[in-house]
Write a structure and sequence with these properties.
By secondary structure, the protein is of the alpha/beta class. It has 13 helices and 11 strands. The protein has one domain: Alpha-Beta Barrel (TIM Barrel). Helix content is 36%, strand content 12%. It binds SN-glycerol-3-phosphate and calcium ion.
């Protein structure tokens, strides 16, 4: 009797794992279609039914969490036209030098490069019509928006906030993680079963979130390359077997760059991939873009590689509708 019961549980777990579909994480909202992290991009992403919507978080001068990918403002807003005198000696405009009220007065546009050209040329071009409905959102605005859409639509789409540059914020006298934790608590989301993943590139901060600040929600350690100077973390170490073991003590998974998982020439998984799997770490790579696919690959072959062959547990994508549609065919 007990053996039959256990066999049933085992088979059911196996089936669940075999049928599990990768989590769809709307990267910066539906950023393939609308300016990243704006409320319209969040609303559009929500309607596409991903599992999670991502928020990159930085602080304003008055200590409010705002949803922005960079500590700088110049690549996605009109700050240089509006506040020309406020740039620092390095020529950049920093979100932390502006109050929330000032940040709210900026217009957000598609990401531009140093030549002021749109990075993804074919994406949203509404700036041509002088549209004025893309603004910087606070973390709390996005939280409330997603919770309300969940209620009105009868779904449960989660949030996937990233603490950006904690060391930079500390040097500026602000503790971004403490402010973040207060927001999670305020909205009842600091729970192990909350539909939340918290992410950070800085391993010291990942550890601090779990061990000092009392984070109970699932946690992902992001992985970069040392050459990117993303944080003070040593990514060569973090990608090694002892580094992954350290991560597994405090985090539920890793967020690697897609090329860190697979050799695109022979499609062989990397040691990082196999070691992370062996440790039971979830693997949520970034960033799948329909308009910037790995060299020599099309959408179908990329999906087959990531989902059918590697079987990653989740994916950050600028095009959540396309991944949701792919999942529906599986
Ligand atoms: O957080 C996952 C992915 O978004 C990491 O890259 O630079 O887009 O924040 P980034
Ligand atoms: Ca991110």
């Amino acid at each position: 009797m007990i053996r039959t019961l256990l066999t049933g549980i085992l088979l059911s777990t196996l089936c669940t794992n075999l049928l599990a579909k990768p989590l769809v994480i709307a990267h910066r909202g539906a950023s393939g279609y609308l300016p990243e992290h704006t409320l319209p991009a969040v609303i559009l992403a929500h309607g596409m039914n991903p599992d999670y919507i991502e928020q990159d978080l930085v602080l304003s001068k008055d200590g409010v969490l705002v949803v922005l990918h960079d500590i700088h403002l110049d690549t996605v807003t009109d700050v240089a036209e509006r506040f020309a005198q406020r740039k620092r000696a390095d020529g950049r405009f920093y979100a932390i030098d502006f109050t929330l009220e000032e940040l709210k007065s900026l217009r957000v546009h598609e990401r531009r490069n140093e030549q002021n050209q749109q990075v993804f040329a074919l994406r949203y071009q509404g700036h041509k019509t002088n549209a004025d409905f893309f603004r910087i959102a606070t973390f709390e605005e996005q939280l409330i928006l997603i919770q309300e859409l969940n209620r009105s639509r009868g779904v449960n789409i989660g949030i996937y906030p990233e603490i950006k540059s904690p060391a930079f914020h500390r040097a500026a006298g602000q503790d971004i993680s403490k402010i973040f934790m207060a927001q999670l608590e305020k909205h009842g989301l600091n729970k192990a079963d909350a539909k939340v993943y918290v992410q950070c590139f800085d391993f010291a901060e990942t550890r601090r979130l779990r061990q000092e600040l009392g984070l109970k929600a699932p946690l992902i350690q992001l992985l970069a390359e040392n050459s990117w100077q993303e944080s003070g973390s040593d990514y060569d170490y973090l990608k090694s077997p002892p580094g992954l073991q350290e991560i597994a003590k405090v985090a539920d998974g890793i967020g690697p760059w897609i090329p860190q998982l697979v050799n695109f020439d022979n499609k062989a998984p990397t040691t990082l991939f196999t070691q992370a799997k062996a440790l039971g770490l979830q693997i949520h790579p970034y960033t799948l873009r329909a308009d910037q696919l790995p060299q020599g690959m099309d959408w179908q072959s990329t999906m087959a590689l990531l989902f059918d062959w590697l079987k990653v547990d989740g994916i950050f994508t600028d095009f959540p509708d396309k991944v949701v549609a792919y999942n529906a065919t599986q």
